Amino acid sequence: MNFRKITFLLSTCLFCSGLLAQNVEISTPNTSMVISAPVGGNLNYLYYGAKLSPTDLENIESAEPSIYSAYPVYGMNCQVESALAVKHGDGNMSLEMEVVNVSTRTEKDGEVTVVELKDKVYPFYVDVYYKTLNGTDVIETWTEVKHQEKKPVVLNRFQSAYLPIRRGDVWLSHLSGSWANEGKLTQERLEPGVKIIKNKDGVRNTHTAHPEVMFSLDGKPQENSGATIGAALCYSGNYKLMVDTHDDEYHHFFAGINEENSAYTLPKGESFVTPAVALTYSDEGLSGSSRNFHKWARDYKLANGNQLRKILLNSWEGVYFDINQEGMDQMMSDIASMGGELFVMDDGWFGGKYQRNTDNSSLGDWVVDTRKLPDGIEGLIRDAKKNGVKFGIWIEPEMSNTTSELYEKHPEWIIKAPQREPVLGRGGTQVVLDLANPQVQDFIYNLVDDLMTKYPDIDYIKWDANMGIQNHGSNYLTADKQSHMYIEFHRGLEKVLQRIRAKYPELTIQDCASGGGRANYGLLPYFDEFWVSDNTDALQRVYMQWGTSYFFPAIAMASHISAAPNHQTFRTIPLKYRIDVAMSGRLGMEIQPKNMTEEEKALCKNAIEEYKMIRPIVQLGDLYRLQSPYDNLGVASLLYATPEKDKAVFYWWKTEQFVNQHLPRVKMAGLDPNKNYKVKELNRVDNEPLNFEGKTFSGAYLMANGLEMPYNHKLDYHKLNDYSSRVLYLEAAQ
Length: 734
Ligand code: DGJ
Fold this sequence. Notes:
The chain has 13 helices and 36 strands.
């Protein structure tokens, strides 16, 4: 039982008012959140942090502020920010909520506490939910808004959650970037004023910013020490996260759907459910909060989150749109010969009347182009079987092109304003389908269902989305509901995904959106993984994957070995370094193997074999980030350890190269100080083994001192280069 309710007579003030105070503890194995929810009184926030003892719990009210509503509403305290602001049917714009009931129930995956609030005057209700997930230190919180007023109520702001965070020297870590530069980490001290992190793309919400943040409560962020609070809004659409710091002792954090151009008209008897915000607390620094998120994700928020992922070759950077039977067969045979397990055919395989030879046509015409693939998908599956690999396929279901048979048949299915020309996206012809429309939802569901029914051997789908909503307008929604468009798009998408997952729970589906445009926990419950970025440059990936790992586990982060020079940065990075970076996530390849030398193929073959050995540690283990590339010390390093701490993999990548430079020696973390670990270098290219190859060290030594990495590789002269990286496998002696 991780829910404790403490009922006792409160301080004089509440006592005089005759209220029975009711503090509610929502607890996880290592954390407590306490709210005050006396029936007839206010729902107030009291505490969120490390687990409280019974004594602390009993006295918490006297030590904590109890002045902040746990879900502030607009109207009776207008000068501060609120989470919910509405306009009642009679024009009244105020809310004043009181607790009417508190209950808890046990579900199969955790416990749910519901605080029911009612407006003091209007039949207007808000249920505030807190859910703990068994075995994790994450609390999900969200709200359900409903009413019985005669006329509809307009929701002008409808955030999911609010959390006050004590001021001091609090730092915010968050991700930002752009296409091909996703997941860039920014860390900044919170100062007076308002910090807003938001998205308005409509479709893809994580290119430019992310709906997840971390707060370091004890000063400058540390990876492995200090108190941190993490928050992840589980939503795939437009969002707004805000930290408001004004004249009191707290930073005021809000997270939820971005209400801009999205005022929501709620009819009597219907309810509006906000997306959950997942909160976590750790006193083991940022990496500690990341581990909490990763475990929660693998156990509850990622499709098949605890099943090892296959090592794949994706055709995109190898052949782009140049798809043909022979070429696919050759790629399958090549990845099979290197030990890979899956081949994924990317864009360019479909189109009837219009051929998809570039990005300007055919989306929506999901028929195999028999001019390119005369034997159809059957032929591809036949070749996959022949080569001993599984087969996967790319689709972009939510989109069309104006040059397509689908658009010719259903011009009314696209998002666009009435009486205006559509704004066109990728290739000068791309348009977004209106997922509010149930016919569009059926069309998308049927696309997947037909593929899977006809070709049950399809093992993997890459689901792409390469355009945002650029022009406002749903042809399906009525005129008075146009402001629901963004919300209904994502509700429609979720409905489709729920149907797909109900029928195909084990199908692997990659969540891709022009690279990393959709790394969010709104969608990930339906996907097994996501494409981190269209940028596959290994050096830039060190930075991008570092940031992305704040919130997402390695098992979900598709990380591919690609060609040199790199197709996005044109940088030439040796294969060893490209492999060592890709091997820190869900390893795959994105390259034309036919252009690789035999030596390169052998290196990849060896890497794939070694990755298979460490795959459970990387994909299911605990992450300890050790040396941040953002510290600009010339090196980045991290480590994965099994929960039992009997095996670990240590990664070390130089991020710059100067003669006679001085790099810090990286101390390890996450090992058992009392265990002795034998060191083995993986992906070795040097002519000589490392000094400590095969030697054994205690976890205590490795964590206090680390191992001295040579700054360069020992190679024949003509192979020397300006990159250096190491992967060490550590195994505890029996
Ligand atoms: C964008 C994706 O991010 C790429 O990996 C690739 O699938 C292209 N779309 C195909 O058009």
